[in-house]
Amino acid sequence: MPYVNSLEGVSAEDLAAVWDQYNQLAKNPETREILLRLQKKNNPKAMFPEIDIKDQVASASAKLQEKIDSQATKLLQMEAEQRIRDERANLASQGFNAADIQAIETEMVESKKTGTVLTYESAAKYYKALKQTAVPTSSPHVTDLNNTMPETALQAFQKGGMRGLKKLTNERVAKAFDDINAVRIKLQ
């Protein structure tokens, strides 16, 4: 049926067909609300309890949900702040001062940049290991210099300091060149 601006010239059968379509739309649960909203939009002051109540409940529910979300966010924030205070108190009881705790928290933040998440405990252990000085160990490679220097080098150093040691070194190098030139040492 073509769109008409007035009912003049419309047959009773066409009007009945339009009315049947309207009734089908109104009875179908999927299209009823759309039809009522179109009527409400056309006449905003008209009362349609079916959609007015639904809109009021949705509006009240949205406000309530917003308040619930806000309270939940505040509660989560308070819990997180309490956990941080507890962790800081635990670190302080282990002997860390405020600067140490700040450094530990900085290490935790820096570790997140590399994809590693450190807990307060693991960050504290890491920080403690960084601050701890290495324990000296004995090594077969480190010996007393007095025992490793040839007696003449030690004597040269005691007599002339670095100049005496340099003089002795130059003398030994010169003697080595003399030995090479005299073919006393065979080069391979």
Question: What can you tell me about this protein's structure?
Answer:
This protein has 188 residues and is mostly helical. The chain folds into 3 domains: 12-46, no CATH class; 67-131, no CATH class; 147-181, no CATH class. Helix content is 73%, strand content 0%. It has 7 helices and no strands. α4 packs across α5 (120-131). The longest helix has 45 residues, at 49-93. The chain is elongated. The N and C termini lie far apart (115 Å).
Poorly predicted segments: 142-147
Topology as a string of helices (H) and strands (E) = HHHHHHH
Domains, number: 3
Largest sheet: none
Give the amount of beta strand, in percent.
under 5%
Rg over CA atoms, rounded to whole Å, is 47 Å
Number of strands: 0
- Percent helix range: over 70%
Structural classification: mainly alpha
What spatial form do the alpha-carbon principal axes imply? elongated
| SS element count, helices | 7
Nearest-integer average pLDDT: 81
Cα separation of the termini? 115 Å
